[in-house]
């Protein structure tokens, strides 16, 4: 029973990080340019469970990037923005705009689930790779 509980906690932690990573990728996939006008930004809440749970009560660590964090970072691309997050590593192949692999907590790229509107967006076996830079 304890082993099952540990497995569930591990799955929740991985799913939470994957969901947060997917949210960051899908929301911030275009280059971040300094803008001279105010713009309302929609608040996006991502959870690793079906129930709304406070960030302080989640069973794992969570990284939150606010608008001010994004503006202060000076990042021009999503990869620049998330490269410094704890537990996140990126590797890029080829020229700019080529394949970028995202790993969370040392896991392989196939251990990260990316959902867009509830549909798997990163299943190489099914040919469902999505260029996240084109999402709006």
From TrEMBL:
Q: Does the keyword field hold Signal? A: yes
Gene Ontology molecular-function annotations:
siderophore uptake transmembrane transporter activity
Which Pfam family name is an example for this entry? Answer: Plug
GO biological process, any: siderophore transmembrane transport
> Per the record, GO CC terms?
cell outer membrane
TonB-dependent receptor plug domain mapped to chain residues: 56-129
Q: What is this protein called?
A: TonB-dependent receptor plug domain-containing protein
* Record's keyword terms, sorted: Signal
InterPro entries named in the record: Plug_dom, Plug_dom_sf, TonB-dep_rcpt-like
Q: Does the keyword Signal apply?
A: yes
């Amino acid at each position: 029973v304890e082993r099952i509980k540990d497995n569930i906690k591990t799955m929740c932690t991985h799913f939470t990080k994957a969901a947060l990573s997917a949210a960051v990728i899908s929301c911030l996939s275009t280059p971040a340019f300094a803008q001279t006008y105010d713009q309302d930004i929609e608040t996006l809440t991502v959870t690793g469970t079906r129930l709304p749970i406070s960030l302080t009560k989640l069973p794992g660590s969570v990284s939150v990037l606010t608008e001010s964090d994004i503006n202060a970072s000076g990042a021009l691309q999503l990869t620049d923005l998330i490269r410094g997050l704890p537990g996140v590593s990126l590797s890029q192949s080829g020229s700019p705009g080529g394949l970028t692999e995202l790993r969370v907590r040392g896991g392989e790229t196939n251990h990260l689930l990316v959902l867009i509107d509830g549909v798997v967006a990163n299943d190489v076996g099914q040919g469902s790779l999505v260029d996240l830079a084109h999402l709006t």
